[in-house]
């Protein structure tokens, strides 16, 4: 499986985080629990794919496309 | 060892039950203020412990990390990581949502590394079964031996007594082995290190939790969320539902609130009359009955709208639906520099900007918050309607275009003008205001829960209190000032004018005489003189000094325009019947004999009232919510300039 941004996967696909961008927002995402190896899936999206709600296991987090772009994932 | 502590801070992630816990601990003994120099609300309360000892409890804004990325979080950082802070607490209660343990522990370990004396309130324990809770509590207690962990349920009040008991004593902070690898201060402006530190904390948290994997809680949470969200964020039903809800909120703040507002208005009018009859005539009585009592009434009259809007707002926040509103509107409002959190403030402002501006307080991003507050008063509020009604009746013919009445269309267009201008102004400000922080959404979608009446009522109570005590002072002061300026003038001039009336020979009735006197007073008052002085400045808009006077008095509230016009034209201003006033205004001519109120002047006035910041109550609230005079003054001038230019442009086109 090649790594792709979170935006490239349809809702419901089980995913695993492979990397997070090394910038300020990336740091913020990491603090919110998006770390390498974290399992997640997109639950639903607002029209135009932004924002999106992701299932983080024990909670649901919503973020914008621009933020989701910083998260690289692979399907599992 | 027993130590006494007098200031304790509540710290925790958003949505952990922190506010509920704060309310459980302090009851109504709380006070809402501002942190100095910022737009962040400060909630302080008094909590009485079992031994009678009282502690000051500060509820800090919810945050996911000590490293700040917003104004709210900077407050938390300053208070907890800056050792020289004057309000530094002696102890911290960290609120941890056990159904969301990993992420909640990040902030906890940061606080732990700051060597804070810590008590942890474990919330949402009802989502775990007893054995899972016991095993995790034991794990935490062995990993952090000098921290006390208390399981609570702030929603129903479980465990609060135990927590209070724990607060009486505290164990000394032992020599702590730091949980993280780096010191917070080193991470501040280095996002590479900040990320690495968070990663390593999560790695250690995962080790600490080990095989602890509570049954049921997570999947149960998610199923309920998805079941509801299938409809509530649906691309069609979701928006229809939101639209219906916004319509209800608007209608209630607009329509339902008007009944109690009329009662308050009437009650204060009667009170003034009663006092007038009791006290001897004179300037002091006038000050009380015409200045102070109506001034207080002018503050109280906003309470119904504030109460009703914050009832809805608290219900939306408490139920978890607010996050969904943000979710489905974010993409639409983003291009205008607004956020999904601006929806309620703007919709409310279409009824009244006062609760609207107050509601903007909950927007976390500083820039979004300021833009929302800045443009909210451009929305067409209910105080503009009496003005529009008179002007439309005056200059717009009641004819039909197809099925539409043109008068109705103009009123509709004025609402549209307010909305479009608000969005455009937001767009401009998006480029003008400097962003202090990166703009991101990153918001948890909370569980749906039934709102609790106690939370909702405390929230309403706090808002009303803040409005009456903080903004009310300014409103009262300005309204007394305006009353003074409209009732008094250079004494010689006033006396002459009044004498003039009485020396003339006329067979006026009592009430005609009264009206003539009121007219002479207003014309020769300081405001009257100001109105005449600004005539050259407003002539290009098509206005004369009479309109000038009405513009100045309208600063108290826009609808005062109608009353002032009535006084100027010496007609009754009982509100219901404007026909006398309309006739007089129609008959008014300019020096060249043309009608004064032609289409151009009428439209120009409508545009002026659509744009001008003629509402001191809004200014007072903006000052209170932005915690500075800078923004309301800027707003006054920016909207004034817009009103002037817009009115001039309109007048020039239609003339
Ligand atoms: N089931 C359950 N619900 C709780 C518990 N504590 C709080 N709640 C509910 O969780 C929701 C959020 O609680 P708040 O007190 O508003 O949480 P907060 O941390 O102050 O949230 P923000 O104000 O958004 O920062 C409310 O609906 C509470 O009734 C708990 O222990 N169990």
Secondary structure tally, helices of chain B = 29
**Quaternary status of these chains?**
heterodimer
SSE series of chain A: EEHEEEHE
How are the strands of the largest sheet of chain A arranged? 1-6-2-3-4-5
CATH structural class of the largest domain in chain B: Alpha Beta
- Total count of strands of chain B: 10
Radius of gyration of chain B: 29 Å
What proportion strand of chain A?
35-45%
Q: How many structural domains in the coordinates of chain B?
A: 3
Give me the CATH superfamily of the largest domain in chain B: P-loop containing nucleotide triphosphate hydrolases
Descriptive account of the structure:
The complex is a heterodimer of chains A (76) and B (655). Chain A is built from two helices and six strands. With 76 residues, chain A is of the alpha+beta class. Chain A has one domain (4-75): SH3 type barrels (Roll), CATH 2.30.30.90. A six-stranded antiparallel β-sheet of chain A has the order 1-6-2-3-4-5. The radius of gyration of chain A is 11 Å and the shape is globular. Chain B has 655 residues and is an alpha/beta fold. Chain B has three domains: 7-217, Rossmann fold, CATH 3.40.50.300; 237-432, no CATH class; 471-654, no CATH class. Chain B contains 29 helices and ten strands. Chain B is elongated and about 100 Å long. The interface between A and B is large, with 35 and 41 residues.
SSE layout and pairing:
The complex is a heterodimer of chains A (76) and B (655).
Chain A: E1 4-5, E2 15-20, H1 24-31, E3 39-45, E4 52-55, E5 60-63, H2 65-68, E6 71-75
Antiparallel strand pairs in A: 1-6, 2-3, 2-6, 3-4, 4-5
Chain B: E1 7-12, H1 18-26, E2 30-34, E3 41-48, E4 54-59, H2 71-81, E5 91-97, H3 101-113, E6 118-123, H4 130-143, E7 148-151, H5 160-168, H6 184-187, H7 191-209, H8 217-232, H9 237-256, H10 258-278, H11 283-300, H12 303-319, H13 321-333, H14 343-349, H15 353-359, H16 366-375, H17 385-395, E8 400-401, E9 404-405, H18 406-432, E10 443-445, H19 453-487, H20 491-503, H21 510-524, H22 526-533, H23 535-538, H24 545-553, H25 560-568, H26 579-587, H27 599-611, H28 616-626, H29 630-654
Parallel strand pairs in B: 1-4, 1-5, 5-6, 6-7
Antiparallel strand pairs in B: 2-3, 3-4, 8-9
Helix pairs in contact in B: 3-7, 9-12, 10-11, 11-19, 12-15, 12-19, 14-15, 15-28, 16-18, 17-27, 19-28, 20-21, 21-22, 22-24, 24-25, 27-29, 28-29
